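Researcher: I'm comparing several assemblies side by side, and this is the next one on my list. It has 560 residues spread over two chains. Same procedure as the others: predict the full complex and return the structure.
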Amino acid sequence: MSVAEATVAPARPAGRVSGRHLLILPALAVLVVFFVAPYLNLLLISVMTPSPRAAYLRVLTLDNYARLVRDPFTWSVVWHTMWLGMATTALSLVLAYPLAYHLARSPRGARGALMVLVISPLLVGVLIRTYGWMILLQDTGLINQLLRALGLRTVPLMYNNLGVLIGLTHVFIPFMVLSIAGTIQGVDPELELAARSLGAGAWRAFWRVTFPLSLPGVIAGTVLVFVLTVSSYVIPSLLGGFTVLTIPILVVRTITELFNWPGGSALAILFFAITLGALWVYLRLAGRTGRTT
Amino acid sequence: MLRRGERVWLNAAVALVYAFLLAPIVIVVLAALNAGAYLRFPPEGLSLRWFVAFAQSRSFTRSLAFSLKLAATATVLSTVLGTMASLWLVRFGGRLRTTLRILLTAPLAVPGILTGIALLIFFYALGWGKTGFGGLVIGHTLICIPYVFLITSAVLVRFDQSLEEAARNLGASPFATFRRVTLPLIKGGVISGAIFAFVTSYDEFNISLLLSGVGNTPLPIQLFDYLRFSFDPTAAVAGTISIAMAVVVVLLTQRLVGLESLYMGGG
């Protein structure tokens, strides 16, 4: 704006224009300085040379990535993480769908009460819920006590993949329910009714009408749960003990125990790229969902 | 729609999943109230002895106080920043709207453990070392901003802007308009955003794991260290406090904005 324009323009609108942007400035500053910059710094350190004497040497190299990609150990951890992610996602989809369907088709009053049941676990810290599972699943835990009382053999439910799977599924079911319930609610119940009156059974009407129409929510929930699962740290480390190793656990160990900052950063960036890819898919699908409903 | 027989099957399946969802939470409360050191069937009777043990444990009470102080600070900061940002974005966003919306919700979307690592290394690079309380406040505020932003935005888009214009036309200053018109109308959203921020910070684990140091231990980290070596029900008391808080929050949010506005993709 030129000086002439500025003096001609009435005082109030000019004041509003500058005052307006003060609203976004603080949040933007915090995010740029303490979110964007740290991630860029991580990217930078991932191409520095590791050193036993300092945090890293200021010598650029791509060796950290090359070493990661060549190491079969990395790939076994990546595969294990992906496997856990896929198994958890599949399991929570199967368990969450009936819940979402039931929720979406409940009368208004009941829906409020059911929402309380779905959301409450989300607000109890992951650590607390994991502790609840530890009481239930450990070798002397309630489930094994019950098995023993029935004269059955005890089953190792914790410090293995099974325990991690149970804990992860439990934590992420609410996210899946919330994603799916929204789209089911958008599907007119009359459509299902029409299919039924034309002779389709309950299953057929569901698979051919309701399920395909709820697909946007299913896809969004699937991607969301997958991303959240592969990046979780507490559950695999407490319910998996030392037997379950995932990428986040490996990243933390490399940086805080081995003090290999460049190596850990490279692994973090690699992992970040994977989740970002999944998230990009999610945002595109969520955008499409928003347009259709 | 379903016929009666089919509805019975659906209801049975749904009841089982709800039982699965609530099981570990109920168990934690039972363990805290149980008299014995282990949860056994039949239970050994009700007792508050673990609550007493918790209150007498210096490390637990100290980290509880630390967690509350941290959550309060992060809540105030993220509520102010998040509400301002959502006001701007809903009203004037313009071409930058999509980009800024992604940036403001990004801390929620990226793995928290990576953000913790990035912050830890960043603080060292700045020469701040173990930053203690300050570093934790920054990390927690970052994680809380998306919640405040999302919930306040959901309320703001339903807001009738002509009310503000009317106030301005009648001569109210921008600040008076905000305080007398805008704020009362979006109050529910701001309060529930703040409540979510508080609970998020109180329960936050990933960021705290990496940024906390000696003497700066939030409760979840204290619990994590404790649970690796012991199953003692003192930890269950901490869990029960957190569960009670969650119940209050859910009921409050339900009254203030309605939980349905939290559907993913909705609002």
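Model: For your comparison table: Chain B touches chain A through 97 residues (CB under 8 Å).
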